[in-house]
Structure formats: structure tokens, C-alpha cells
Amino acid sequence: MANISLYGARIVDLALLANDYLVISDLHLGYEEALNYQGVMVPKFQYPLLTNRLEEVLFWQKAEGIIINGDFKHEFGKISRQEWSETLNFVDFLRDHFQEIILIQGNHDPLTPIIARKTGLEMHKDFSTGDFLVMHGDQVPQKWDQIPEETIIIGHEHPTVGLRSGERVEKIKCYLKGRFQGKNLVVMPSFNFVSEGSDILHEKPLSPFLKEDINDWEVYGVEDFETLYFGRVEDLMEFQKRYNLIQ
To answer: Which residues of 168-205 are buried (b: 16+ CB within 10 A; e: fewer)?
Structure first.
């Protein structure tokens, strides 16, 4: 596995090593049950994929702590049976592997503090580790100019790049590396296996951090522990126009 660093944070598949913390984002546990309520009948398959993938990450990279960067669960206004079961089991799983667990509140987490209290954890707006500040990314802090950390790590966007081969389009999860209002910014892919994410080239961005010009931001695709440098966003857009290989 290539040792690729984004402003000093190391890519380990869908996780990011920032000092001695692994950061994962946007798990959306319980998503399948939410889809079932909407009439989309999908099996509850994500949890074993998630724990197996994290065990693979830990095979390559150990860490003392883990940061879940928002959207731990999926439902906004309730805690479903699937969410109760999977979030509690996942916290037990994490305690077997890490000395410290940090939960950061995302926009899907209005009720996650109830789960946090039941497990003896706390919710955080953000978390600082050295020169890195980890926050979900659904809001830009009002006192941005008072943040001392040089690099901000966010989730929320679930970035992907859609690659076309004939009639088939495959979305590849990716990291984004750029600058935002005088600071380094890293956007993480989701640690989620129900939904691939949003195509940064063709879909309207979710995060306010991406609503400025991101043409010169760099893109790093991740697929089965391989990291692929795709160049800048504007390079991919030009590639699309020239070869029509991107959705």
C-alpha cells in the first residue's frame, strides 16, 4: 500500500491517520432500515463489511485512538432498532481495538448524544490533534480566523469520481486536498458501504467548504487499499471533455 500523505495525514484506505488517531467519517449505521421504511428493500449488510474493513485498516496501521467524524447513525428524528444494535455493538468493537474513542457530531446526529451517554462517551463539535482540526464539515465555524490549526479534516461530502467505461459508470471514493480561506483542507470519503457518495464533477456539493472554486484541488481515489492520484479537479474535467470517460 502506497504511503501517501495529505498535509502530513496518511491515507490508509478509507481512513486517515492524523498523528496517533485514525479518522473515519459518515458511517450512517442503520441506513438499510431507513431505506426499508421508504419502500426500498435492501438487506442489512453494511455492519459486517464495516467491521471487516476496519480490521483490514488496522492490519496496515495501528493507532491509539479513533475519531468518528460525524453521521455515526443515519436517522435524524429517531433511533431505530438497527441503529441501537449496531452503534452499541460498534462501540464495543472499537473498545477492543482503541484506547480512546472520539465522536464528532454531524448533521445526522441530533440523537446520537443519547447513544454516547449510554456508552459513556461524549460528543464533540470538533477535535484537535496537533496541527489537525477534525470537524464534520456541514458548517463553516463562525470564528474561522481564530482556529490555530493549519489543517482542517472534514467529512460530510462523501466525495466520489464517476468513471465511465462504455455504458457502465463506476463511482470511486476519493479524498480531496485543497486550500480554504487560508488553511489546508482535506475532505474524506465516507466509511459507508450502502451509498457510494456524490460525484464531485457533476453533482452539487453538499458541504459549504466546497462551494467556492475547487478546480485546483487535488483528487486521490481509493479502491481496495490502493490509492490513485487523479490530478486536479480541472484536469479531470478536461479529461472528461476530451475522452468522455467520466460521467
So the answer is: eeebbbbbbbbebeebbbbbbbbbbbbbbbbbbbeeeb
> Rounded to a whole number, what is the distance in angstroms from the first to the last CA of the chain?
28
The candidate with the shortest Cα–Cα distance to 210, out of 245, 174, 241, is 174
Which CA distances in Å does 22 have to 25, 67, 94, 134, 146? 10, 6, 11, 11, 25
| Tens-place pLDDT, residues 144-156 | 999 999 999 999 9
Which pLDDT band holds residue 247 (cuts at 50, 70, 90)?
very low
CA distance 113 to 108: 11
Distance of CA 98 to the CA centre of its chain: 19
Distances (CA, A) of 93 to 8, 16, 87, 134: 28, 19, 10, 22
Determine the Cα–Cα distance for residues 189 and 9; give it in Å rounded to an integer.
14
- Return d(Cα 188, Cα 185) in angstroms, integer: 10
Element (H, E) at 53: helix 46-60
Q: Name every residue whose Cβ is closer than 8 Å to that of residue 173 and which is 6 or more positions away in sequence.
A: 14, 158, 159, 160, 189, 190, 196, 197, 221, 222, 223
208-217 pLDDT tens trace: 999 989 999 9
Round to whole Å and give the CA distance between 135 and 125: 7
Instruction: Collect all residues with Cβ–Cβ distance below 8 Å to 6 and sequence separation of at least 6.
Output: 16, 175, 177, 186, 220
